[in-house]
Request: fold
Amino acid sequence: MLVLLFAMLGPVAGDGSRATGDLGVVIERAAGSILVVEHSHDTRLHEIEGLGDLSHASVVFSRDARYAFVFGRDGGLTKVDLLSARVVKRIVQSGNSIGGAISQDGKLVAVSNYEPGGVRVFDSQTLAPVADIRADYGGAQPSKVVGLVDAPGKRFVFSLYDADQIWIADFSAGDEPSITRFSDVGHLPYDALITPDGRHYVAGLFGEDHLALLDLWHPQRGVHPILDGYSRREARLPVYKMPHLEGWAVAGGKAFVPAVGQHKVLVVDTGSWKTLAEIEVHGQPVFVMARPDGRQLWVNYAYPDNDTVQVIDAESYAIVRTLKPGKAVLHMEFTPRGEKIWLSVRDDNRIQVYDTATLKLLRELPADKPSGIFFTSRAHRIGL
Amino acid sequence: MLVLLFAMLGPVAGDGSRATGDLGVVIERAAGSILVVEHSHDTRLHEIEGLGDLSHASVVFSRDARYAFVFGRDGGLTKVDLLSARVVKRIVQSGNSIGGAISQDGKLVAVSNYEPGGVRVFDSQTLAPVADIRADYGGAQPSKVVGLVDAPGKRFVFSLYDADQIWIADFSAGDEPSITRFSDVGHLPYDALITPDGRHYVAGLFGEDHLALLDLWHPQRGVHPILDGYSRREARLPVYKMPHLEGWAVAGGKAFVPAVGQHKVLVVDTGSWKTLAEIEVHGQPVFVMARPDGRQLWVNYAYPDNDTVQVIDAESYAIVRTLKPGKAVLHMEFTPRGEKIWLSVRDDNRIQVYDTATLKLLRELPADKPSGIFFTSRAHRIGL
Reply:
């Protein structure tokens, strides 16, 4: 009977012995697996396999911080229970997708698709289909969709790559969304971000020199160009990697923006959307992450400088430290109140954890070609 | 055997069947009890009794969002496990206290005391004493301490009511804090706040017309007066309740500040700390809370207007709606991404939940003289 009891209590205890506020997910991109981790003691808890093609994967969390929704490149959408370390459900909802989002109330999960285009929306409980937003614009096929984010008011905002459009899908009245379309926003929107307050949507444009800005407090004012010269400004260097726009840091009324093809971080005023300063850095920046208190910026770089991370003082713009974590630093994630940062060092197969005050390495964890790191505190943030 | 199994599984299942990202605590001030609640479905989960004098109680959370630390007026510090709904430990650490904080890394819990004064610091795991910061200043007794907050860099900041001082206690090097003292900050500091980025500490002063500002990015620059005329500005009305400084909302580079003794909310520029505008409101404001996206302000009022809540557009400063939730609205708490707000209506013995987009009442929950409402997402915020 004791054996039986332990057998029965085992999984229950496994389900129940911990809370979820300090959990996270690390993508192991080559193996198609994820690590469930925790950042109170900086340990690995579980490894979960069978999530498909996780190159360029991203993750959002349920509002109770229990479930991770993992978006794979192959159109896979996998719901993982972080407490039991089990895949709850997995669907392949398209042939090729990039990026997803969860609605403000946590009830809807949306995925933006390259192939066949459009946005598909699912019930976050069951992954049952709720809405299929066809990105029809008069072309031969629906448009590829990129730059999908959630916004306050149970809205999703996204860009139509082939159609030069930005759409707002508003689910506040029910499962049949109200769609607002903005056309001629600029040629070939390829990615986008939303500011942490959920107000400003900024799309990058392959075919333009500027970016496109939509003020979601005043959508009737339309989409406007900002940062003219951003995309090609003095572009004397080959562009090794187009920086993700999610790589912007927004803190203290400023956006810190990776320049394209240059060894610079741009400082932009988020009131006027004008450039205030340019910070000379070690390579072509990919992600510029602001520590949660806004005092520090951590920057990683494109090949061949992707062994380096720099720490910048967000007030003086001075380089505080140049770190060499290892080969191919792909992503960075701060703990929620910013006392630590986790780095994924892909080609050295490890995660590093630093103290952000002393800049000392605290710990290393093994991981199989790690890329994205996502902590559950994102569940409580707009646009993440 | 089935009976035995159920008996054993019961509490384990109770421990384990849920996550902690959507939990919260409601103070039942008269009964000395708390409710454990959840805001995904807006329900009560548990009631826990025996927490002592909870008039003016406040709560902070462990970094995994599992444990609540409840600070009572009687010097009681109670650690509650939200999953098992049990008191893990309770100590009475002083004779009379007001307010507490948890360190950036979650390891230390600090309490500020009226009687015998000073700040006591405890291990968050065990509640074992770690440090006893005597607020000695040359008076007959240690000073009463108020306005205790956490700040980045494992610091606590607080004000000495009797000594006209502000102190920073820095625990980054270990359990023996390094103390920085600022004297002559202004007469009788009675409360304080820290901005959401953890940079600016603002103390209210009973004996002055202005407030005191400390920039924690540059403590060597000292404490400076701001908002001259704040405390007595046109004070023609009797002050029914001194607004808590924690009642300030900071969003989009502006602080929205309850005026003292007037029917006004002040709009202050957080760069220059000058007043930009004054918003005429229904009564003497107590709390001015910004919705997480910064678009709305919700304001409650002192007696005799404490049956009213107003919703203000944070951009145009227009009053969007005047609500009458019931008798004695004491506190308000937004869900983390702002789609809902919970209000405590003390004298009607209920909690109300509103949709912040439609401003419609979604639900009411019974509660015994509810006051403060605290959701676990505070675990991941600086200064809360």
